[in-house]
Amino acid sequence: MRALVKAGPGPGMVLRDVPRPVCGPTDVLIRVHHAGVCGTDLHIWEWDSWASSRLKPPVVVGHEFAGEIVELSREAASAELLAVGDLVTAEGHIVCGHCLQCRLGDAHLCQRTSIIGVDRDGAFADYIAMPASNVMKLDGIPTEIGAIMDPMGNAVHTVLEAQVPGSTVFVLGCGPIGCFAVGVARAAGASLVIASDYNPRRLELARSMGAHATLDPAHDDVLGRIRELTGGDGVDLVCEMSGHPDGHATAFAAARLGGRVNLLGTPSRTTVTDFARDVIFKGLTLYGVTGRKMYETWHQMRRFLRAGQLDPRPVITHRFPLECIADAIQVIKTGEAGKVILEVAA
Amino acid sequence: MRALVKAGPGPGMVLRDVPRPVCGPTDVLIRVHHAGVCGTDLHIWEWDSWASSRLKPPVVVGHEFAGEIVELSREAASAELLAVGDLVTAEGHIVCGHCLQCRLGDAHLCQRTSIIGVDRDGAFADYIAMPASNVMKLDGIPTEIGAIMDPMGNAVHTVLEAQVPGSTVFVLGCGPIGCFAVGVARAAGASLVIASDYNPRRLELARSMGAHATLDPAHDDVLGRIRELTGGDGVDLVCEMSGHPDGHATAFAAARLGGRVNLLGTPSRTTVTDFARDVIFKGLTLYGVTGRKMYETWHQMRRFLRAGQLDPRPVITHRFPLECIADAIQVIKTGEAGKVILEVAA
Amino acid sequence: MRALVKAGPGPGMVLRDVPRPVCGPTDVLIRVHHAGVCGTDLHIWEWDSWASSRLKPPVVVGHEFAGEIVELSREAASAELLAVGDLVTAEGHIVCGHCLQCRLGDAHLCQRTSIIGVDRDGAFADYIAMPASNVMKLDGIPTEIGAIMDPMGNAVHTVLEAQVPGSTVFVLGCGPIGCFAVGVARAAGASLVIASDYNPRRLELARSMGAHATLDPAHDDVLGRIRELTGGDGVDLVCEMSGHPDGHATAFAAARLGGRVNLLGTPSRTTVTDFARDVIFKGLTLYGVTGRKMYETWHQMRRFLRAGQLDPRPVITHRFPLECIADAIQVIKTGEAGKVILEVAA
Amino acid sequence: MRALVKAGPGPGMVLRDVPRPVCGPTDVLIRVHHAGVCGTDLHIWEWDSWASSRLKPPVVVGHEFAGEIVELSREAASAELLAVGDLVTAEGHIVCGHCLQCRLGDAHLCQRTSIIGVDRDGAFADYIAMPASNVMKLDGIPTEIGAIMDPMGNAVHTVLEAQVPGSTVFVLGCGPIGCFAVGVARAAGASLVIASDYNPRRLELARSMGAHATLDPAHDDVLGRIRELTGGDGVDLVCEMSGHPDGHATAFAAARLGGRVNLLGTPSRTTVTDFARDVIFKGLTLYGVTGRKMYETWHQMRRFLRAGQLDPRPVITHRFPLECIADAIQVIKTGEAGKVILEVAA
Description:
Four copies of one chain form a homotetramer. By secondary structure, chain A is α/β, with parallel strands linked by helices. Chain A has helices spanning 39-46, 49-54, 74-78, 100-103, 143-146, 149-160, 176-187, 200-208, 222-229, 247-254, 275-280, 296-306, 325-334, and strands at residues 2-6, 14-17, 27-37, 59-60, 64-72, 87-90, 93-94, 114-115, 127-131, 135-137, 168-172, 192-196, 213-215, 235-240, 255-263, 271-273, 285-288, 316-321, 339-343.
């Protein structure tokens, strides 16, 4: 089969013919229809310090995908919960089930996580084998959307880890996950959603996802405007999606006394923080978001999508065939893209 | 009546004769029996930048106290809930009841808080007038202990803002509030309580409050020992009580994946934090602790004290009469004191 | 001033001239614009066993209202949070602030609650005096809607005491509060809202408030349809608003394993319940709803109303002047009314 | 190997030689050391209506056990988390992992649960095969105690589904699980634990587990005494462990306004309940307890046991060899037994 492979140290990926993966004793085999290209894939392409310390090439890249079940292990078949022909997506974190975190229902923080497309072969390929327990049926959601439920799940996790109905939400950073977060906050009954980014194209996407107000730090007094829009209180919930080191100070300042800051964007360097003034005296709660809750996040997201409360399609701006990965990577690097999709199956 | 007054800008306090406070329309008047001396009082004594920017002298100092009701306003009397002769303590934050935080049950974060002994006359005096709604009956708790329920309440708030039964807790910093936190964690069913401080005298106090293990960063590999004591996982809950800028990095590193860090100690300067590594990838929750929940914290604390589950007396190391405030301040500055009490009434 | 008074034992109310209430030391005096007529007022009119055991006539009736502040006590004025001319509504439960429930933030369950229009003079009058702390500014919400925020608050409390975003909700009973609950569930991001009632007029109101599906037990297999609409699972949340003794069995059966049943409707007699089959083996949570959370519920409701997420106006079906109370009571008794409003001020 | 088998319809069990179970692809094989005899086993012995409608004989009985791993499947071995020689216990509910409840972290409510000793072969035998993911290492806890972690887990689940530190708890019914609940409430920091039963022997066990007060409804005014012991408020948490139909009314009446009633005991018939008076006007929360949270409950219990905070040994009153099952059943029927253990391995 075809697969995009990180073949060895250094930049780039190569399209190769590799053996179709074996469907293990608790697995299902999936024919990939669509796959999403993530910032992580960009790091892998560029072979930055994180990638070079984590990956052991050769490895098939890609962790966001949806497709069709073409084979089931005997165990998966006997459970009678999945069937050949089912359209599915999957959680890409393969977890141990035994560590403290797995035992406490926090499998997204498993001490022995193995991530597809990073620690083991991934989804930028014609086929992928996945443990049956990681697989979710799409139940009518198109595979193009199913392919981006992994990053959308990051947004769902970030937003719903708060009491959203009737709340005021500030989404700081409008990359694809930030834009999804805007849509999730609206779906979950937020009364006011404010989004900020330096990139006007991204603010436009945020508006199309339902932001009531968008702010550009280059032109707007972000904190002043937030105070104005919230009657001087600040917002109930800040979703820090920028990963920009300056984002934290803005996030803490934007939150109201007793508010909440959920942090998803991962800054590449340390931050100078005034914990006394910005966190302790304000009675803030900060929460670090990793992955998706397994599988509460997936369930809530599927409900939103199937009910039509959340429509992520405005964020999908580009589609490429598998062999045009270089173009996909390039468009992400320009900052002009929302979500970029690989169309794998004809 | 006698009162310790911050008379004007500059260090020190003076013992003066001042008029007995008037019992306002919703107040009760309390004869002070015991009062606690706090780090805040030290800042006020020394007239540091915080004190000089916040206080408007002359003001009677002191916010931790217990005593006896000697007069009730007509409104307080008609409610028939408090009576002359009741031994009581009181929450020293006078709140507005109308701001967003008050309306949401977070009155400890009231936007218009007025603190006794800081923003208005306080408790280092023979009498103090307090709104009846701020007053809690001691119901058998001695006034000496009642006088330190304010700082003990900080510890109760810090510890109980987590799921404690069966958990592992690391108390970082063993000043009086840290030592109280050790006792509260034990009372609340923690399975393992580890405490750290550079001061051996304070570690001794922590052990007397029930710490299973005490660590001195000058001699112990704190993080290594915590890993050892928790089977490699790290602790469920860190209570950061040191306020030392280095405390944060240790706190975040000591917490397990998915753990919680409740921050009470207020560092005097900013901290350099690696949010990606220490908070986001670890899925941590951070919580800034201000004051005491009004009045859930007081209720839980009174339960612990009356049931004998928590005995703070080992932490009380010094007692002085009102006129020896300079000695009280001095002993706190040496770092050799636990909690220091003023014996106000004969 | 004019006031509708329960003058003595027996049915009916009388319109009388009574003295304007005195604005007490912590009160504000409000000129009533609109008032809502409640099922409770019907019980008082009819002088049923509950009413005759609870009320001590003469008492001015009415507990749902909104109007304009015309006078402030010195204490209320000095807080500078309310002003003459402010349009406001108010929580009608006057609480003690000292009992266990008040201290724990559950003032809606105060052991010494005094309810306006029941235990003390109420709002079917030209003026009412209210403690300033019970008063909420309308901030642009019309007084007609402000007058029904008390019963709407019951619905907000019932629905939001659950995790609503993405959930499936069954509202059992479509009187005014049931219809409000439909709207609140939609505002809070429910994915599916099903409503049932025997009265087609009420089902029509439920649909106008956003119900995805409405069921009439006289013609529909309610449980069968719910299973169908939820893929066989049952719903996440049932709001029992009917108060019909048969409602409980249906409510428990409609909830999914691990679901939640919030009970607001108060049946007039006991219920036969199979706790083993319906509650324990299903892992259900049941919650009894009393009043409105003080004041979290009011805050959330105001957010929904001001943001336009919730519009209760379809439920208001009748308006009468104060003197036509008999007509108002009559139309409620027919079961054809949604919410009935008294227009008090010209 | 030897096994106690329900051979066919009708009362009793037989000790038979049956083939040693096969260690399936994700299983481990365990040599049983100790097993606990449960009320459920009594129902199976007596072949009551529940048993005859649920079991498909022949089936090996028994679901509470602990023992030693003697064989691992290749999959279980490759995970390197369990090893031959490990002393373990196991959750006896084998769940599907795919239904709504499993996906939401409520696997204890799995729609397709298969229970060992009921729906499939169980633990009253020399060996049992269990999915590796159901197995918990004892880490120093003796197998005799490990064998009763299943029912003790019911108690842990019942008690910890509430905020226990500083609370007042009433345990209604002092069978083995009720007695465990007393110990768990103490371990978790309850300030007051009251227990009731008609059987003086059981009240003695409850006292040995730490009950502050014990009540016998035949001689004590249970509700009056509870009011007295709680200053008139009622208790924060009731654990209904009796399963007696009268238990519910007492449970609801014993709870304070805003309190919580966790229901574990399963009455054999319906209950007449005054929901308006007892649940709705009181603002109660009721929670039906099924099984143990997978695996949060097990984790918390292991913490309590390993830290010495909970010692269930006083409740173990009888020990029998496997072949004396009739004696074990008999002693349970007398009501004189606490927990009854089968000593399976020499």
